[in-house]
Write a structure and sequence with these properties.
With 151 residues, this protein is an alpha+beta fold. It has a single domain, classed as Aldehyde Oxidoreductase, domain 3, CATH 3.90.1170. The protein is 25% helix and 32% strand. It has three helices and six strands. The chain has a six-stranded antiparallel sheet, covered by helices on one side. The longest helix has 15 residues. The chain is globular. The N terminus is likely disordered.
């Protein structure tokens, strides 16, 4: 696995926001970037990748248990390692209603999958599903960000 430390930007001005909402009467927590990451040209990262982790335990009002949060945190650490100009950027995570989602914009779907698979080497399998879509203008992210700012 290559060392991405020289390729991964240090976003000292990169800021995130937390928003709360409800879906089907259950709490939802959104952690998202306040803006497109500095220095990024969205059209160079035209693919939207959704990573889903669905769970059945509804005992915590649709939110993950402490054990699940720990496991999800391990996955997120591994995801952080593949973020960068040569791959893509996570822009949003959503937690609630018995699922966790990580939403990324990437330059190449195949490269993203290769880096993701490398990042998961040595870990117990994570129960995730992936979906990809074309979104070269980052409409998904910008429309959600606009809705959050209205509130």
């Amino acid at each position: 696995m290559s060392d991405l430390s020289d390729k991964t930007p240090s976003f000292e001005t990169d800021q995130w926001l937390i928003a709360k909402s409800e879906e089907a009467g259950l709490p939802m927590i959104f952690r998202m970037r306040r803006e497109v990451p500095p220095g990024i040209i969205p059209q160079e990262y035209p693919y939207l990748i959704n990573i889903y982790w669905r769970y059945e335990d509804a005992s915590n009002n649709g939110l993950p248990t402490e054990l699940l949060l720990k496991q999800m945190g391990e996955l997120e650490v591994r995801l952080d390692r593949i973020e960068g100009f040569d791959n893509g950027f996570m822009v949003l995570s959503i937690t609630g209603n018995q699922r966790k989602e990580w939403i990324w914009y990437v330059c190449d779907k195949q490269v993203f999958m290769e880096k993701l698979n490398l990042a998961l080497v040595g870990a117990e399998p994570f129960p995730i599903e992936l979906q990809a879509a074309n979104d070269p203008k980052w409409n998904n992210f910008t429309s959600l960000l606009a809705n959050v700012r209205k509130q």
